[in-house]
Amino acid sequence: xxxxxxxxxxxxxxxxxxxxxxxxxxxxxxxxxxxxxxxxxxxxxxxxxxxxxxxxxxxxxxxxxxxxxxxxxxxxxxxxxxxxxxxxxxxxxxxxxxxxxxxxxxxxxxxxxxxxxxxxxxxxxxxxxxxxxxxxxxxxxxxxxxxxxxxxxxxxxxxxxxxxxxxxxxxxxxxxxxxxxxxxxxxxxxxxxxxxxx
Length: 198
What we know:
Blueprint: E1 4-10, E2 14-21, E3 28-31, H1 35-48, E4 51-58, H2 65-83, E5 92-99, E6 102-109, E7 115-119, E8 126-127, E9 130-131, H3 134-146, E10 149-156, H4 160-178
Parallel strand pairs: 3-4, 7-10
Antiparallel strand pairs: 1-2, 2-4, 5-6, 6-10, 8-9
Helix pairs in contact: 1-4, 2-3
């Protein structure tokens, strides 16, 4: 069974291509025009063992918001498409990831219901050209189109780079566990009989 997806999203604000393989090895090619965002999406790929190609061109002369949002929406859509009917999955995944002084916990449920809980300590406004207030919006966008439940909690930290990066690593590890095929699971792991209908 191939668990791959190719998503093309085009608006007047951005043009995004996402290619995803859930059963990859973490190979990635990322170019959004926003260096720190590229670095974060590389973490998602590497630590989630997701093969990921992201090519985004957006109205960066305005700011990075549209490019970041539309890329996240396309990544979420790719996850949803690659999951198919969600049969045989572990469904749940959790991870706690330290990065020096920072500790982040992420918990995923491939529930078919989009819901985000995001708790983050106060951060400086910018990391390079990256607006740190958009981190929550990235998770909101991915959750909305992937149809998953995601809890992200920054437990401790001082350095903004560490706090954002540890979030991407923790989500990657939790997602990696949740999307794993469990040979003992027969059909869809839900008493409702579906994870694709709310």
